[in-house]
Write a structure and sequence with these properties.
Chain lengths: 110, 129
């Protein structure tokens, strides 16, 4: 149940915050250096990092539980033990990939 | 609503009253998002910098601009389908449901159009130049 709720929460976050941030980034880049600098001042702020790290987690949480749904769609993975393992794996993988990406970014770019 | 065969009972039930087409499109766009957003994330991780010149000259390339436009179609289509299910599950009053689904359609089409226009402008005006 938790993995299903997390799928919706992560999906809503991506749909509203994620999609708006993506469009803002593109519109800022299309509007010239001044607008882009303003976007960067937000993206580079502590709040910007919290939002970007949150969106990274939401994306991979939604991706892995989405893959789980595709497996369930073909009628596989309904055995209690398998289902439980997949559910836990979704949370573990999402956190692991988010941590890996941001550790890599912090080491490489800063 | 059918009252004979099981399939007849299934048709017309559920909070949305319809669904197979929606269900299939949600999966098509899910796979689209999987491929295109992963491409965006790996591209961003490999870029030398995320400053104005690096980003606009990257987006201006045809093999970046086109996948990016397709990504916006896939993302906004998928989020429209997903949020619609959410609305249908939690809003039970017909008039309000109609209004909120309408707003969702405006958001999805408007957001996709704005994003695609921004990419086109960057591409056709040659990026940073």
């Amino acid at each position: 149940m938790a993995v299903s709720i997390a799928h919706r929460v992560a999906g809503d976050g991506l749909a509203i915050v994620g999609a708006m941030a993506l469009v803002w980034w593109l519109v800022a880049a299309a509007s010239g250096p001044g607008h882009y600098a303003y976007f960067q001042s937000w993206a580079g702020s502590p709040l910007g990092y919290i939002v970007m790290i949150g969106l990274t987690w939401a994306f991979f949480q939604h991706l892995f539980s989405g893959l789980r749904h595709l497996v369930l769609d073909i009628g596989a993975g309904y055995e209690l033990k398998t289902n439980r393992t997949f559910s836990i794996l979704v949370f573990v993988l999402a956190i692991a990939v988010t941590a890996a990406i941001w550790c890599w970014l912090l080491v490489e770019k800063l | 609503m059918g009252n004979g065969t099981p399939i007849g009972r299934v048709r017309g039930l559920g909070s949305a009253k319809t669904g197979v087409h929606h269900w299939v499109l949600q999966r098509f766009t899910a796979v689209g998002n999987l491929l295109l957003v992963l491409w965006l994330i790996f591209s961003i991780l490999q870029m030398p910098g995320l400053d104005y010149v690096s980003v606009t000259s990257w987006i201006a390339q045809p093999l970046v601009a086109v996948p990016m436009m397709l990504m916006l179609v896939s993302i906004f289509w998928h989020l429209k389908l997903g949020l619609q299910v959410l609305i249908e599950d939690y809003i039970h009053e017909d008039g309000l449901k109609f209004a909120v689904v309408m707003l969702l359609n405006f958001y999805a089409l408007g957001g996709a159009a704005l994003g695609i226009f921004a990419i086109a402008k960057i591409a056709f005006t040659g990026g940073a130049a």
